[in-house]
Design goal:
eight-stranded antiparallel β-sheet, five-stranded antiparallel β-sheet, Uridine Diphospho-n-acetylenolpyruvylglucosamine Reductase, domain 3, 20% strand, 19 strands, single chain, alpha+beta, globular, 4 domains, binds flavin-adenine dinucleotide, Uridine Diphospho-n-acetylenolpyruvylglucosamine Reductase, domain 2, 459 residues, Alpha-Beta Plaits
């Protein structure tokens, strides 16, 4: 207790805003993961404003060997912000400046607390585009998306966050400032340290500034919604569309349970009697849109699409995407808790994954709403559950393990975009071999010898 008091007193001396009441610490110790049985909460919450503030916190954390857990909006779903061992929460909401948008370089320099959706809107004013779009981009931050290498619906054509980070300014675990690159769109100068930090879940360094690549904003876009009577037909259509060498921006998916659950809570005229819905977004120059749409419509019809609707204006476009983005919120209305997962397989095994997850959930008596960025081979099973029902919770744990076993068997991995955090660390060995895991542990030790940066996350 004495040490904690000293820690807080040191923090208050050096930093502009430190919260330490029980209520404040509790409020910042949760994220969107629904992790059960975490006994600890943060010792203090520090609102940083500059890189120097971050360096000061690191110095104090090293003195007391206290964990530092960076926090953006706390929307990750794997427990990456949970304070399992107490520690200092670094809150970046005051480091939220867009420092530069350069049309000439097609890059932007931003602080980690910038909200992703705001950033996208800002660059679009210049005719530019930043594609990573996790469904909750209205609240999640650049720092969080870098740390999780977030993706979203547009990953199929445009990739994920890792494809857009060209330089990072990072405060290391010993308080130094490290730069991973420069404001250039290519870099073959030494090891690619930037790629180590992207997706490292705040375990290797603290991002205080990022230079991001931008691309030209597509002139036009529209979404085609295709309904199918079977999941297998829908999955077959995904591959058939791709085989046409057309490059849709997104190929997303909702199963019957997801369609029905969303329609109940966000009525968007979805067809609730169909087994599967594909959302295929096409974009590009206006003159190419009808050409792309025609090819897609023909393919969908030949793959037994039961009903096809295309958006004709922004209102229709936004309505269908808002429905898709609401899926987790809608599932959360069914039971006190909802879990979402993120498994990904080579596309050729997608149907086996989707049908296999359904079977596993049926076997354990669990409801599942499945959505996913199926163009990438990625599926998000969302399972409504009551964590206070111990018997249901243990069935869920068994189902979750079997879903990961199936994913591994199908040549997949445990996350394409959500990360590992606490939620999946006990399963990572199923897909990453022990040699690779050993190298990962050594990398962690090199960057963070005192194990103060978000300790024990990932493995
Ligand atoms: C409804 C819903 C839908 C979602 N849909 C998607 C989706 O479609 N695609 C997708 O990819 N994800 C999705 N997610 C997951 C989530 O949006 C992402 O993980 C998000 O990018 C996290 O951002 P955040 O600001 O909330 O980060 P947080 O949750 O606050 O933090 C995430 C990680 O980043 C670290 N971190 C934060 N800031 C820094 C920093 N400055 N330096 C170093 N580490 C830092 C934290 O320590 C933590 O490990 C969804 C989540 C929800 C709740």
């Amino acid at each position: 207790m004495l040490m904690k008091n000293k820690l807080i007193s040191d923090l208050k001396k050096e930093l502009p805003c430190v919260l330490d009441t029980l209520e404040e610490r509790y409020a910042y110790s949760q994220d969107a993961s629904n992790i059960k049985n975490i006994k600890n909460i943060a010792d203090a919450v520090v609102f940083v404003e500059t890189a120097e503030d971050v360096q000061n916190v690191v110095r104090i954390a090293n003195k007391y060997k206290t964990p530092i857990i960076c926090r953006g909006a706390g929307t990750n779903v794997v427990g990456s912000c949970v304070c399992e061992h107490g520690g200092i929460i670094l809150n970046f909401s005051k480091m939220n400046k867009i420092k530069e948008i350069s049309c000439e370089n097609m890059t932007a320099i931003v602080e980690p607390g910038v909200i992703l959706g705001d950033f996208q809107k800002e660059v679009e004013k210049f005719g530019l585009f930043y594609p990573p779009d996790p469904s909750n981009l209205a609240v999640s931050t650049i720092g969080g998306s870098i740390a999780q290498s977030s993706g979203g619906a547009k990953s199929f054509k445009y990739g994920t966050t890792k494809d857009y980070v060209i330089d990072l300014k990072v405060v290391t675990a010993n308080g130094e400032i490290l730069r991973t690159g420069a404001n250039t769109i290519k870099n073959a100068t030494g090891y690619n340290l930037g790629s180590l930090f992207v997706g490292s879940e705040g375990t290797l360094g603290i991002v205080v500034e990022a230079t991001l690549k931008l691309i030209p904003k597509p002139e036009c876009k529209k979404v085609v919604a295709a309904y199918f009577d079977t999941v297998s037909d829908a999955v077959q259509a995904v591959n058939a569309v791709i085989e046409q060498r057309i490059y849709p921006a997104t190929i997303d998916f909702m199963d019957k349970n997801a369609i029905q659950t969303v329609e109940k809570f966000y009525p968007a005229n979805l067809l609730i009697n169909k087994d599967a819905l594909l959302l295929i977004e096409i974009d590009g120059f206006e003159c190419s849109l009808a050409y792309q749409e025609n090819i897609i419509l023909n393919v969908l019809k030949s793959c037994n699409a039961a009903e096809i609707q295309s958006s004709h204006n922004d209102e229709e476009y936004n309505k269908i995407w808002t429905a898709r983005r609401s899926s987790m919120g809608a599932c959360a209305q069914l039971k006190p808790n909802v879990t979402t997962d993120d498994v990904i397989v080579p596309r050729e095994n997608l149907a086996k994954l989707v049908l296999g997850i359904r079977e596993i959930c049926e076997k354990y008596g669990l409801d599942v709403c499945m959505v996913g960025h199926v163009g990438d081979g990625s599926v998000h099973p969302q399972i409504p559950i009551d964590y206070n029902n111990e018997e249901e919770y243990s069935r869920y744990k068994l189902a979750k393990g079997e879903i990961y076993d199936l994913t591994a068997k199908l040549g997949g991995i445990l996350s394409g975009e959500h990360g590992i955090g606490l939620e999946k660390r006990g399963h990572i060995h199923k897909v990453i071999n022990s040699v690779a895991l050993n190298y990962m542990r050594q990398i962690k030790k090199t960057f963070d010898p005192n194990n103060i940066l978000n300790p024990y996350k990932i493995f």
